[in-house]
UniProtKB/TrEMBL annotation:
InterPro entries: Bact_OuterMem_StrucFunc, OmpA-like, OmpA-like_sf. The chain crosses the membrane at residues 20-44. Residues 75-208 form the OmpA-like domain. Pfam families: OmpA. SUPFAM superfamilies: OmpA-like (SSF103088). Keywords: Cell projection, Cilium, Flagellum, Membrane, Transmembrane, Transmembrane helix. Signal peptide: none annotated. This is Flagellar motor protein MotB.
Amino acid sequence: MFNLNELNHQPELDEEESSVLLSIGDLMSGLLMIFALLFVTVLVQLKDKEEPRRVVVGTVVEQMKGNNINVKVNPETGDVSIQDKILFDENSAELKPAGKIFLKRFIPVYSRVIFSKKDFEKEIARVVIEGHTSSKGDDDTNLELSLMRSLSVAKFIFSNELNFPTKSQLRTKVMAAGRGEMEAKQKVDDPSDRKVIFRFQFRGENFSEWYKKNQPLPQQKP
């Protein structure tokens, strides 16, 4: 027998279900809105964090070109590469006279950029001077040579032979490191691998993590 009570009661269940679905829909919309706001906030924070770094790097590029200083600057990181033939004789860690002349032109301009603005000085935590070699020769010898060269450059910068207004400030940021042939092209003795790099470590980057990130795996030799 057909029950009229069941027929009358059915729409009420549909309305309850619709209310539940609407509530769930509203909740999902609210959550999506929250996630969207968080995403936008993170993007803005990342942009604000990276903006000073881009300005620092751009200023380094501009000043090197403007002062006709023959170096290669990475437009993304600000790494400044100086070919070792400018600074050293082959297999030597002693700065050549021409190398000293070059550093006397380069360092004052480079340091002036770092300390030209408080934001720049604050953003740059360290300046790491790295020595690099090609794959020619023994690994251990290359690593030692690269470290000795970076130390020679650092020692000269803070010697009595070189004076510039921001010398004492730069001293607090500089450290020397040897990378040997770790970044050399595999199995190839390429002179372009032999260089000294001035590399920024920016504020907020843990040094051990930063160094590990910039530490490539040793190349496998045949």
